[in-house]
């Protein structure tokens, strides 16, 4: 096959049909129509169609009833005429008198009666009728031939006038046993047509009134139904314009009320996030001010030590105004430089903790299978290198969960660092892991009862802690990691008198098999 033909076939397969194009066009047009207009139009169409269908159904029902009643009346009248004619013919035959060509039966002027036999020979008519002459049809002749049954028909004359006709057989008697005759009785439908015409007019007027009512109902329903949407729209615009995050009023329990409730939840989360940002900025400014002030003092002192006349000054450097060069010993100079470096390191740690806490959300990375026991061992090894003067009493039971290994290791490390900071030299840090609960106890001074509820808050530092290095963010990072993994934290006093900090994480004591490769979900 030629590639051009193949491409044409593919294009023809991908080209949407007329129905799809029409639907897409309607969808595009409706997307530009306001929701209120769409609801009003839908209600108008629905109610209008209902009224129209009801009017049509009523008109058809009444019309059929009128025509059915007309047919019953015609049939009964025709049967009476046939019986009367049969009696008259028998009387003529019995007395040997020839029957007249006109009928002497009780019929109305707007009725036509045709008396004929199976050979389509007319035996009599109604001389008083005002209707045009009617010829029996094949169906009428068949009724005469069979002597049973009947036939109805509607006959339209030139000019538009109509008649309804019925044909019934004239039963033979003992005097004329072989006769095959019938009566055709026709009645003008002028009155019936007038009645149906008035009914049609009434139905049309009712339909128009129904459409008008449908329009009013559509407008009313559109306004009433979208009033909560209008309130919600005004509330969102007010929030966007003013930044006021107070919840909006919720009315009812319908879908719009659920939408308003969800919007309030979003406002609450946004307010909480903004409050978190404000507190973080305020606390960060307060915490950064102390190391920055100390560092500035030391740098000013170093500027006096390493003035422009110093051999250590950079080429082209000038001495800061108002500062005089001072002389200090090499030991003091080394101590001063060490203080600056320590303050820079403290500042770096503080900035790192601030960045960690500023996320305030669950980790974006996909959770991984984690053995919490391995995480604790790695954290203990790291802290042991920083605090070689301490002993670590470790008892760990397996505990597996899905999470972020780096975040969990940082949280555990912060717990151990806190214990190492408060433990005396040659003290023991006790680490226990059982059923997902990690407990870290030290032999330090412990935590005061009034401070226990606050130790995991950001930047919270007790009176004793203010004399120790740290930013007050380490335990807050532990709580955030626990909450992001569905866990919780707690603080108490250890039996030894020190602090006892706990971290619980949901998980399981055994590994789960990986159905894809037959391996385990976590590495023990």
UniProtKB/TrEMBL annotation:
One Pfam family from the record: HAMP
Residue ranges constituting the HAMP domain according to the UniProt record: 223-275
EC number: 2.7.13.3
All residue ranges annotated as the Histidine kinase domain in the record: 283-509
InterPro entries reported for this sequence: HAMP_dom, HATPase_C_sf, HATPase_dom, His_kinase_dom, HisK_dim/P_dom, HisK_dim/P_sf, Sig_transdc_His_kin-like_C, TCS_sensor_his_kinase
SUPFAM superfamilies in alphabetical order: ATPase domain of HSP90 chaperone/DNA topoisomerase II/histidine kinase, HAMP domain-like, Homodimeric domain of signal transducing histidine kinase
Entry GO terms, CC: plasma membrane
Compartments (UniProt record): Cell membrane
Transport in keyword set: no
Membrane-crossing segments per the record: 39-60, 199-221
Reaction catalysed by this enzyme: ATP + protein L-histidine = ADP + protein N-phospho-L-histidine
Leading EC class: transferase
Protein name: histidine kinase
The organism's taxonomic lineage, starting at the top: Bacteria, Bacillati, Actinomycetota, Actinomycetes, Catenulisporales
């Amino acid at each position: 096959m030629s590639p051009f033909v193949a491409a044409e076939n593919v294009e023809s397969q991908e080209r949407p049909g007329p129905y799809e194009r029409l639907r897409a066009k309607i969808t595009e047009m409706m997307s530009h129509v306001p929701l209120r207009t769409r609801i009003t139009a839908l209600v108008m169409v629905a109610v209008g169609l209902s009224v129209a269908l009801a009017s049509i159904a009523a008109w058809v029902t009444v019309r059929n009833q009128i025509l059915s009643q007309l047919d019953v009346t015609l049939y009964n009248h025709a049967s009476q005429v046939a019986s009367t004619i049969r009696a008259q013919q028998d009387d003529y035959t019995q007395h040997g008198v020839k029957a007249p060509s006109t009928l002497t039966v009780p019929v109305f002027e707007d009725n036509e009666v045709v008396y004929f036999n199976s050979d389509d020979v007319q035996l009599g008519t109604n001389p008083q009728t005002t209707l045009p002459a009617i010829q029996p049809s094949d169906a009428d002749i068949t009724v005469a031939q069979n002597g049973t049954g009947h036939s109805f028909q509607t006959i339209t004359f030139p000019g538009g006038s109509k008649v309804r006709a019925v044909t019934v057989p004239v039963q033979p008697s003992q005097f004329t046993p072989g006769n095959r005759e019938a009566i055709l009785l026709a009645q003008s439908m002028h009155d019936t047509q007038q009645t149906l015409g008035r009914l049609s007019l009434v139905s049309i007027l009712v339909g128009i009134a129904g459409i008008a009512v449908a329009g009013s109902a559509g407008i009313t329903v559109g306004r009433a139904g979208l009033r909560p949407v209008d309130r919600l729209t005004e509330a969102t615009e007010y929030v966007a314009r003013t930044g006021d995050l107070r919840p909006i009023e919720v009315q009812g329990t319908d879908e719009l009320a659920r939408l308003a409730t969800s919007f309030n939840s979003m406002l609450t989360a946004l307010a909480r996030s903004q409050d978190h940002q404000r507190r973080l900025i305020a606390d960060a400014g307060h915490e950064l001010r102390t190391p920055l002030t100390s560092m500035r003092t030391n740098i000013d002192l170093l500027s006096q030590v390493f003035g422009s006349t110093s051999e250590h000054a950079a080429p082209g450097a000038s001495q800061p105004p108002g500062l005089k060069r001072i002389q200090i010993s090499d030991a003091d100079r080394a101590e001063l430089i060490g203080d600056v470096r320590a303050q820079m390191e403290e500042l770096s740690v503080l900035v790192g903790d601030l960045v960690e806490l500023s996320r305030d959300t669950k980790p974006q990375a996909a959770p991984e299978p984690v053995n919490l026991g391995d995480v604790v061992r790695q954290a203990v090894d790291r802290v042991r290198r920083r605090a070689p003067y301490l002993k670590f009493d470790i008892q760990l039971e397996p505990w597996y969960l899905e999470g972020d290994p780096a975040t969990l290791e940082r949280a555990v490390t912060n717990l151990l660092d806190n214990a190492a900071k408060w433990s005396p030299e040659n003290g023991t840090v006790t680490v226990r892991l059982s059923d997902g609960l990690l407990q870290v106890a030290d032999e330090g001074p412990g935590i005061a009862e009034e401070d226990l509820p606050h130790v995991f808050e950001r930047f919270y530092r007790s009176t004793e802690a203010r004399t120790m290095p740290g930013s007050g963010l380490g335990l807050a990072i532990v709580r955030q990691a626990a909450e992001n993994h569905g866990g919780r934290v707690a603080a108490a006093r250890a039996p030894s008198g020190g602090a006892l900090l706990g971290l619980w994480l949901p998980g399981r004591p055994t590994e789960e098999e990986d159905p894809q490769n037959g391996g385990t979900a976590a590495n023990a």
